[in-house]
Write a structure and sequence with these properties.
homodimer; 488 residues; alpha/beta; Arc Repressor Mutant, subunit A; Aspartate Aminotransferase, domain 2; Aspartate Aminotransferase, domain 1; 3 domains; eight-stranded mixed sheet; three-stranded antiparallel sheet; elongated
């Protein structure tokens, strides 16, 4: 008999049941040829004693092996290892290997890419990011409760095997209520589509709208992933200035007079990267332009849920835009969980087309995850979380603002009305990339300015994401920045 | 005092804690104006008695209200409803409504769409589908265990907030092992990318390869979502016959001699829709053609995991193809859970480009879900499930084959070597759409033939997905088909 006591080791800390550990070890021993086809496994009583396990555990392990056809019971003889082993080896028709070491000789389409935005220090804990939520505040307990509740009811779970391309119906209905309550949007479920995040909404809308060579108006600067998406789809970008009141709508109008514009991309709240909010006056004017020049508009409202000193202005999508505004947003940032769920609001016909395209891109979403989010909306979990997180981020914005005064005349900024980041403009004399490299050597990771100026000459400015840092971390981060500036 | 006893109803069956139910009711009463700003809530002792709840529950509810700023404690007076209510209403800048009832006046790009494939009877339980797994066999207990284990460790969970565009690193490593063991693929993690399913892999690969006007070779017939994707991306489809040994590779070669072909799409196992497997001889020949004419190949191996009478032949991707074969597959079908996870295998440089494009489409995946799948692969859960499901589907294929004999000369078919469907060809005299409509009236839902012949003249054939039906359901389904044929 083989030295089973040493061959079959049990890990009592493993989450895997012991009988399965035993069965899996036997499978390895059979696959490795240590136990030959046609031989017999030791009797369950004997093996149980050898391994100091209950006999029932061994019987369960043998049953598992039999159910997988590795062994078969032979009357009065015990468990025989199958001579016709179930591990069917694939038939090879060609002996070659390592084919993927070679790069193919055919040309690939160009995809817009950013230079790698981060440097050494990446793995360090202290990171001033682009403006992400604090995952430590995420409504994790509530999320766990919803998921558990769904996965513990297999009968119900099985209805959730497939989500349509427009998304889970329950979530669409809850989204309508949520957007009506928070944004004054007056829509029906047929105007909604659940996506994998705001980015998928942007891609889908842009892919429906842009023909190669079309002109698209964006800000100067603008959210880089949006710009890259439009370019990828064949658009020519026309940039208009962004000042303290948001996009310069007069510049938009001048462009519309000169050229046939297909699409306008606008971030009405807390513009990325500059964090400014489009003023009510400019919104009115923009609505006129949209109608007059028959513009399609993607309104990216990724950060609406967080606002501080002032009440938010309703989005363009809530106004009288004649169906021109495709409204996109996300729950990913709002909740700070790993789930990636966003939405798109548009006329019914547009949603139908978008769903047809989405089928080609990924068929549909994860219905279970979407159902869990619907329940969180219904039960007020999302609303409660937003209220609490908003208070925390408001305090952090003010704390960050006070701390950044330490940097003196090296930096200027305006506290944003909402969102998760402050736009820091540094003096032209300061070598910002060098300062960021020095900060990294002191343990602080930040983004480089070039990523905020995709396709443009970078200015001396970066986003300071304050939301994910508590008071102590904010103090540390600004302290390191001060030191790094002093090293110049 | 308000009649709180009737205004605040507690649902003891709800999963929501009672204190939250009380707090939420108070919020509604405040929002509805029934409780006015500046008034006081009843003392916790009094309310506890009124509602027959513990006083601590009321105190917790009031704390919740205070933490959300709905009320504030006033010394010796109790909880006062805030005069400055926290529900900040968005500022409207325009009174208009119902903007999404209008359809926009701008043109949308055409998206290939199928006519709606299903008819009445859709909601009925008995469905002969395209070839989907039986969700009743899904490894749900194991999946629940993995998810629970991850979500019950917040410290770990928080590391999972973001998945890179190429996917969770642990899952990529496990995928390498899985594909090596099952398919003889010799790759490193840098050759892999985790996607939202095989469809996203097809879309990404095709979008990297296809320039408008490029020729793409597919089968006649072919998987409709692949054809639609290639057309959406601007390709011109060239179709070659599919016979019992798969794609006609001589026809492929003739096309390559005549035209500059960019891409070949091939389903080497259980071709969709016809279920045939590409023979070893044709694979050899195809590899020669690929190299000679510098073809890019998308090998869609969506159904490899299920094979019956014969051992599977390794995919083209496992052979010596010089990096030309982009290999795509999925765990969605293999596991039958709601999760949508697929993969793409390609040279490193190709994967990097694909990741850049995927960022524009949806940034990245759900890291938690990917980590849970990695654990299931590591612990052998996936291998065990596949082995068990394979046995069940094998029995069902044979049972379906025996039952379909009842239809006599009306139908001809070849049992497939693997996969989840049988390709049924009906006699030309039979009005198949009418038969399907009649079957629907008898309670059986099936697909119409047109969806299997996208862009072609439909033949009298449909897929009979047997995997999701047990013996009793198969008997019922074939019985209804027999009756429906008899009604003609």
């Amino acid at each position: 008999m083989l030295p089973y006591k040493s061959l079959i080791r049990i890990d009592r800390k493993s989450r895997q049941p012991i009988y399965l550990q035993v069965a899996n070890r036997f499978i390895s021993l059979i696959q490795d040829g240590l136990i030959r086809p046609g031989t017999y496994l030791p009797g369950s009583r004997i093996l149980a004693e050898l391994l100091s396990l209950h006999r029932k555990t061994i019987v369960a392990a043998y049953d598992e092996l039999a159910s997988q056809d590795w062994v078969a019971p032979v009357p009065r003889k015990g468990m025989m290892v199958a001579s016709n082993l179930p591990e069917i080896k694939p038939r090879t028709f060609s002996g070659a290997r390592h084919a993927y070491e070679q790069e193919p000789a055919f040309a690939l389409n160009e995809i817009p890419m950013l230079p790698h935005p981060r440097i050494a220090g990446r793995q360090k804990k202290l990171v001033v990011n682009d403006g992400f939520p604090d995952v430590r505040l995420a409504p994790l307990d509530e999320w766990i409760r919803e998921c558990r509740s769904l996965i513990q009811h297999p009968a119900y779970y099985r209805h959730l095997a497939f989500s349509p391309a427009t998304g889970n119906e329950h979530l669409r209905a809850q989204l309508v209520k949520h957007l009506s309550g928070t944004r004054g949007l007056n829509i029906i479920p047929e105007n909604t589509m659940i996506t994998r995040g705001a980015q998928m909404s942007i891609y889908l809308a842009a892919a429906l709208l842009i023909h190669k060579g079309d002109y698209v108006i964006t800000g100067s600067p603008n959210y880089y992933f949006a710009d890259m998406t439009f370019e990828q789809l064949g658009a020519q970008l026309l940039r208009v200035p962004v000042d303290k009141d948001g996009l310069d709508v007069d510049a938009v109008e001048r462009l519309c007079k000169k050229k046939k514009i297909k699409l306008l991309y606008v971030i009405s709240h807390h513009h990325h990267p500059t964090t400014v909010t489009l003023s009510a006056e400019r919104r009115m004017k923009l609505l006129e332009i949209i109608r007059q020049y028959n513009l399609a508009v993607i309104e990216d409202d990724y950060d609406y849920d967080f606002y501080y000193s002032a009440a938010p202005i309703v989005p363009l999508a809530s106004a009288d835009h004649g169906g021109h505004v495709i409204y996109v947003g996300s729950f990913t940032k709002s909740l700070g969980l790993s789930l990636r769920i966003g939405f798109m609001i548009a006329p019914k016909h547009f949603i139908e087309r978008a769903a047809a395209l989405r089928k080609l891109m990924d068929l549909g979403g994860d219905n279970l995850v979407e159902e869990a989010l619907a329940n969180m909306l219904k039960e007020g979990v999302v609303a409660r979380h937003l209220k609490k997180a908003n208070k925390v981020y408001w305090e952090r914005r003010d704390a960050a603002g006070a701390l950044l005064q330490q940097l003196g005349r090296q930096v200027t900024f305006q506290l944003p009305q909402g969102g998760m980041a402050i736009w820091l403009k540094f003096q032209p004399e300061l070598d910002l990339p060098q300062m960021i490299t020095q900060a990294a050597s002191l343990g602080l990771t930040m983004n480089f300015p070039h990523q905020y100026f995709y396709g443009m000459q970078p200015e001396n400015a970066i986003r300071f994401g304050f939301a994910s840092l508590n008071q102590r971390e904010l103090t540390q981060a600004v302290g390191i920045m001060e030191k790094a500036i002093g090293m110049q």
